[in-house]
Here is the input.
Amino acid sequence: MIRKAIRQNQNAKIIVTGCYAQSNYQDLKKIEGISLITGNNEKNIILKQIDKLNINHTVIKVKPVKYLRKFDNIFKGEISLHTRAWVKIQDGCNKFCSYCKVPYARGPARSRLIEDILKEISNLNSREVKEVVLLGINLGTYGKDMFDKKVSLSKLISLISNFEEIKRIRLSSIELDDINDELIDVFIKYPKLCHHLHIPLQSGDDKILKLMNRPYTTSVFKNKISQIMRKIPDIAITTDIMVGFPREDVQSFNNTYNFVKKIGFAKIHIFPYSDREKCLATLFPDKVDQKIKKDRRNKLLNLSKELSCNFQKKYIGLTANILIENEIKSKEGRLYSKGSTDNYIKVLIPDLTGKRGELVKVQLYKPHPDYIISKILPKI
Ligand code: SF4
Here is the structure.
């Protein structure tokens, strides 16, 4: 992709950043045409570096620092002006799943200071941002590396709940083994916490889960999901699935397919397996053919559509609170306000009857691919 970008954009500055730049600096250095290579921790200086590139027409290659042991607070006071803001609270991972390069590229799990996070949230609150999404490579480990044992994800959510203008708090992806009773109870105690959990399953087959070095079996996964759903019945649970992991035979894939269907996820993100340098799985025999991976991915994509549709159907005719995020125009030229429920159903309201940033009550009445059409209910 990098070479293609260079070929197709001969007058452009090509900048490579992220985990690959972090871990494969030496390989990237050999590619002619890259103007800047910069690791994860220097992303916030990219604009300054671009200025230098424009003036001097030089090529800069910032050797990425391997990784930091402490949380690198790259927030420098910039403020998002969107309805929803993403707030990074954690970095790194200690789990070493056999297919994943993140622990090598991002380093060990580390948490951002709670005071820094609250300062950023306070800024967002004063700009009337309505929803914050808490981000981390391994979000559920937040606080576990800190001396103060009272710091935890649950505690952080309780503190963010006190900000008046912040109406919603959403969690990004979280690992199953980090979801404990305390966190499940927080969903009930703090209504601002959105009823949505993205829990990566990766495979619905115990043999493959073991090879992946995932710390659960399908039965542990199923029991935890049942416990969550019993306590929070309207929660949307979405997931990631990897297809074509080495030794995934027809039986293993069918087990995954059936398990995903049985759990009834609200949506699935599907990724085909590929070898990653340094990862144990690259040494595994019985690699799966590309075409088979593609077929399996397509089968799961169809299942994901079916499951999303089933999840949405349960809400037709009901009312829900929507946060209006932006506007879209349909192919026919009709304008809609676009928003989402707290359990992440995407909603369209015809003719821009809702304003951006507004929290409104709507009736969900008509399914539409990817959305439910709704109408705003009058305030009581
Ligand atoms: S898949 Fe997630 S939990 Fe596993 S090593 Fe990668 S980042 Fe960590």
